[in-house]
Amino acid sequence: MGMKFASVWDGDDSSDGSAPRVAEYGPRLDNDEKARVLGYLQSGRIVLRSQNLLPDPLDLDREPCVPTSFFTDGDWVWDEAMTYFVATYAVSPPMDFLGYLRARDFSRRIPTDEELDKIEAELLG
Fold first, then answer.
1. Residue 56's closest CA among 81, 35, 31?
2. Distance, CA of 50 to chain centre
3. How far from 124 is each of 3, 8, 15, CA to CA, in Å?
4. 74 and 109 in contact (C-beta within 8 Å)?
5. Residue 60: how many CA atoms within 13 Å on its side-chain side?
6. In angstroms, what is the C-alpha Rg of the chain?
7. How confident is the model over 99-125, as pLDDT tens digits?
8. 20 to 30 A from 26, CA-CA: which of 48, 86, 97, 101?
9. Spatial separation of the C-alpha atoms in residues 2 and 47, rounded to whole Å
10. What was the pLDDT predicted at 24?
11. Helical spans, DSSP H, in 70-111
């Protein structure tokens, strides 16, 4: 299928128990683009639901609050953490994913049930 995955994490596995780091893909989003990115992320269909919450590495005084479910539009998959960091801090998604959203003019794509099944199978290995 060639699933494309967008994540807000920098790839650090945090095996030492510390909170993972949030990647800095670009400058923070302005209010207009933040709203458009957030709208797109929130319109995705859930692929894998998780009740786990991670610590917020940008505010370690907070209780764990970063969600860990996965969403898709059929072309891309993203973790719900991205939605949290866009909403809370206007963090930019990875530039290739942001370019994809801009090229679509943020118009939502609704995946088919068949696409969801294939993506779920790929995520679960």
1. 81
2. 14
3. 13, 20, 21
4. yes
5. 7
6. 14
7. 999 999 999 999 999 999 999 999 888
8. 48
9. 16
10. 81
11. 80-89, 95-103
